[in-house]
Write a structure and sequence with these properties.
Blueprint (H helix, E strand, L loop, with lengths): L1 H20 L2 E2 L9 E3 L7 E4 L2 E4 L5 E5 L6 E9 L5 E8 L12 E7 L13 E4 L3 E4 L9 E2 L13 E8 L2 E6 L2 E10 L4 E6 L4 E10 L18 E2 L9 E2 L2 H6 E4 L2 E4 L10 E3 L6 E9 L4 E6 L17 E6 L2 E6 L2 E9 L9 H4 L6 H6 L14 E8 L2 E6 L2 E8 L10 E2 L6 E10 L6
Antiparallel strand pairs: 1-16, 2-5, 3-4, 4-16, 5-15, 6-12, 6-16, 7-8, 7-15, 8-9, 9-11, 10-14, 12-13, 13-14, 17-31, 18-21, 19-20, 20-31, 21-30, 22-27, 22-31, 23-24, 25-26, 25-30, 27-28, 28-29
Amino acid sequence: MTRFLSIVLMACVASAHAAEDGFVPLFNGKDLAGWKIVNVAPGTFTARDGMIVSTGKPTGTLRTDRMYENFIVELEWRHLQPGGNAGLFVWGDPITHVGVPFSRGIEVQILDGRETASYTSHGDVFSIWGARMKPDRPHPNGSERCLPSEKLCKPSPEWNHYRVTCRDGVLKLAVNGKEVSGASECRPRKGYLCLESEGSECHFRNLRIKELPSTNPAPEEIALEATGFRPLYTGVDLSGWKATDEHQAHWKVNDWKLSYDGQCMAADPHLWTEEEFGDFELICDWRFTGKPVKKSWSRILPSGLDALDADGKPELIEVDDAGDSGLYLRGSDKSQVNMWCRPVGSGEVYGYRTDAGQPAEVRGAVTPKLRADKPVGQWNRFLITMRGDRLTVRLNGELVIENAQLPGVQPRGPLALQHHGDAIEFASILIRELPPESP
């Protein structure tokens, strides 16, 4: 009871203090109201003893549920283990960048006891994954990273205080009461705040913010708007998936990545979700990890038919081939969005394209408009939309399938990551369910 009263008293004092100087709490001291999971497990970030506690596992982030533009944010942090890594992301996107566990934004580093000529543990500020900034002092390597003018952080497990002032794309960081680093010309300059999990336990407390007047950023200076995506993969286990011991021996949890060796021998070796979905948008990053070999595959016409040579035989194209996989939609292998190295490109719905019983318009519509795959070994991103029996697929930002009809597809069903005997990695498996369309 004494401990509970202490926490309540701390919260009351903090609220009173905030009200006096225009600050408001970013954390209520009791739960994570006002924050959203981006790509981590439900237990990665928790509220405990008036703190936000990060386990560090998996690597990923927790974000605010709204954007901020101009503001002053304060927080205290400490690492429980020497050498710990975390961060405060400013003006970030609400979803991860392709093939990484973090979002585009400006990172205010929260690091302990690790220093080189290129980085420090005393309040570096740098741009990540497509964000831009001009550091207050040139970096020795020419990168967009500001090294602090003084080394003022205290080592684990002591507490440190950060004050981050952000106004019109200019960011200044004060560490334990003194400004040490910063940047200007930051883009985006409006977005979400994120706390980073990266390997070991870290504590955050006394998070508060004071918003400053807007300076009306242009649309290109604003982060992406959150639309309700949530992770299907926790990064710590296969909860939410139908995984036997045999599945778990081959579908390996690998921090923010899910790695498959292609060797599962279960009766059904595909990895299915426990949930069923109707209309949805799905983000899925993937890359083949095997060594590519030269293979020849048919060239596919826009109609979905094989191109034929002068002798009436399929016209072949040689490619670097590292494997085959896909996403099963609504419980069916027929409604599979392919991932592969063939000339036709990923995104093809093979089960419908090769079904001679389907109308010509169906077979043509499920044939990719273009091949948008990255080279073997690089990360790709699908954005898949299912509404009713209509499918749209974007691959690496390119529209490859547009409003294609899948006749007979079930109205609801689970999703699956396909086993096809090849090694592949997945990341950022995120979904948002869509409301039924109005009649």
